[in-house]
């Protein structure tokens, strides 16, 4: 098999696997579509809203990888020309990440590196937030 045939085969594999389904006869169209973080032209609040309550894998310098749950997407937009929002993540207590750029990976949405900072926590978990403020472009594909 030549390289081109192999690559074409690999590219069609996800489409074939999606049709296989699991657990009995559900409609494939009824499955929610997870947006790709890696392919997004810009990171927008609506991209993350469908991921609320889901677990991301956060690269950690000591523990390797820790679970970070996207608890909520908070909209702070006050003007149509600028989109402002915050992502609120929670981890197990004792993760103790310093402010900075950290890699996150979602099982279906892919990888993204975000600048996160510690937020007010509680004794049951550590909290972190990523803050966004970006212009809404008139010619931007949404």
Layout of strands and helices, then pairs:
Blueprint (H helix, E strand, L loop, with lengths): L2 H18 L24 H5 L5 E6 L3 E12 L6 E10 L8 E7 L3 E9 L7 E10 L7
CA(first)-CA(last) distance:
39 Å
What structural class do helix, strand and pairing data support? alpha+beta
Largest sheet: 6 strands, antiparallel, barrel
**Helix count from the secondary structure assignment:** 2
Number of strands: 6
The helix content is 10-25%
Beta-strand percent range = 35-45%
Biggest sheet strand order reads 1-2-3-6-5-4
Order of secondary-structure elements: HHEEEEEE
- Dominant shape: globular
Q: Tell me the count of domains.
A: 1
Rg of Cα set = 18 Å
**Low-confidence spans: pLDDT under 50, at least 5 residues?**
1-28
Query: Could you report the average pLDDT, rounded to the nearest whole number?
Result: 77
At a glance:
The chain is an alpha+beta fold.
List keywords for this structure.
six-stranded antiparallel β-barrel, 142 residues, alpha+beta
Description:
This protein is α+β, with helices and mostly antiparallel strands and 142 residues long. The chain has one domain. The protein is 16% helix and 38% strand. The protein contains two helices and six strands. It has helices at 3-20, 45-49; strands at residues 55-60, 64-75, 82-91, 100-106, 110-118, 126-135. The chain has a six-stranded antiparallel β-barrel. Strand 4 (100-106) and strand 5 form a beta hairpin. It is globular and about 40 Å long.
């Amino acid at each position: 098999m030549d390289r081109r045939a192999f690559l074409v085969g690999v590219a069609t594999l996800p489409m074939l696997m999606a049709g296989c389904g699991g657990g009995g006869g559900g409609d494939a169209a009824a499955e929610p579509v997870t947006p790709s973080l890696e392919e997004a032209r810009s990171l927008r609040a609506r991209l993350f809203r469908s991921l609320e309550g889901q677990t991301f894998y956060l690269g950690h310098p000591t523990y390797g990888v820790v679970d970070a749950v996207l608890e909520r997407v908070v909209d702070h937009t006050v003007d149509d020309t600028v989109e402002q929002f915050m992502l609120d993540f929670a981890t197990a207590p004792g993760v103790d990440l310093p402010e900075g750029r950290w890699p996150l990976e979602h099982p279906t949405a892919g990888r993204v590196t975000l600048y996160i900072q510690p937020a007010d926590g509680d004794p049951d978990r550590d909290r972190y937030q990523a803050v966004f403020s970006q212009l809404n472009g008139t010619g931007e594909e949404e």
